[in-house]
Amino acid sequence: MQSSDSINYQFFTDGIRSQLWVTPGKRVLVACSGGLDSVFLLHLLYQIPELTLGVIHLNHGLRGKKSDEDARFVQKLSESLNLTCFSRKINLHLDPQLPKIGLEATARKLRYEYFNSVRVTEKYDVITTAHTGSDFIETVLLNLLRGTGISGLRGIDAESATHVRPILAYTRPQIEDVALKLGLVYRTDASNADWRFTRNRIREGWLKLLNPLEIQTLLREMLELGRVADDVVKLMEESCKKLEKQQVKAINPGKILLDIPRGTGYFSALWKALFDKAFQHVTGIKTGLSERHYRSLKWLLETGQSGRQIRLPNDCSVIRERSRLCFVKAGLDEWQSTVIQSGEDRTISFFQVKLESVRTPETLFTDKRTQYLPDAAEGWLLRPWESGDRIKLFGHSKFAKVSDILQAAKVAPHLKKWWPVMLHGDEIVWIPGIVPSEFARIKANTSSLVRVEIVLNFESAE
Q1: Strand runs labelled E in 50-137
Q2: CATH architecture for the domain at 253-329
């Protein structure tokens, strides 16, 4: 690897020309913040006439007038190069995802959503961003500090079908050296020097202790490690698919149930990958769990106590259910009382309820999901059971606690709190899926019935 003293502008342009994504006529949308790296990349790509360039900038509005000045700078730079510039200003603080995923992640999400929308509507082939080798190093070190599995060692991808990072193999000192010689003008973001941010402490603290050659050596080794980690992760994903077929017992939007056999080494790399997939399914985000979260999962499994739960990031809860783990989005199963009439077919929380008026049949077929009840013009009340609820069981003269019945029925802990009961007036007539009450008895003179069917939307795949 060449030292920064021996490289020049041609070194960079030749390196980019040799990349496989560079083909004649390719339409390239260059993301430009106005900072050193993105301005440098824009000038490099401008030297490759085979490419058709456009420039794109998103003003997050986080730095007030400074952010507006950045946007104007990028617009003027684009005009000086006779390039089309796409620019938009947003109010980041109004995004509903902000409290859940944080400022940096929200900004990234909105930025790439905007970039991709312009790429599609304006018919560009790829988006380029100016991530450097120094960014790669910082990302891997950040992942290690936060606690990462092997996937975190992959760092930053060099390219995908629609996204390319052409200068990922070059360090910031190399770029700064050539930019200084060229006299490039660019914007400086003062927040990059704010030591409250861990990335800045890595950049301005740890990495400043290394000389340029040492940084290049570190990048070379990390890039190779990232390639190896990527191969390992792909192999693990294939193995994880087989494990997933065996262990995933039920899956719904925002919820997944995993069967955990006894004696399994839960925290092998393969099981960690499966837990990552469950977390990603529930939350809809791409990142996996940290080592701290794995330790919490290990505690949950080792306790062996059904009903215990832990909270993970992004409103994900994990509940121990005997030999299973339920990953569920917080609040997913919550619902409120509702009146349902004959003829209705409705989905409520984790179950679907259907009421149908029927004439009295010769045989009343019932199962756990189906119950016949005397018709009621005023409808039926469905509500989550409450502490203190009692039911007069069918064929019995005494009342029983609903809580005891749910316990005996081994209702899944994540559903137990919100399990429905059906009432007529003040009396519970049915605990769906479990048992009817004496008040559900069909008398000989009953001429009009309602057939009630309640089906769980989250039933075991067994």
Answers
A1: 52-59, 85-89, 126-128
A2: 2-Layer Sandwich (3.30)
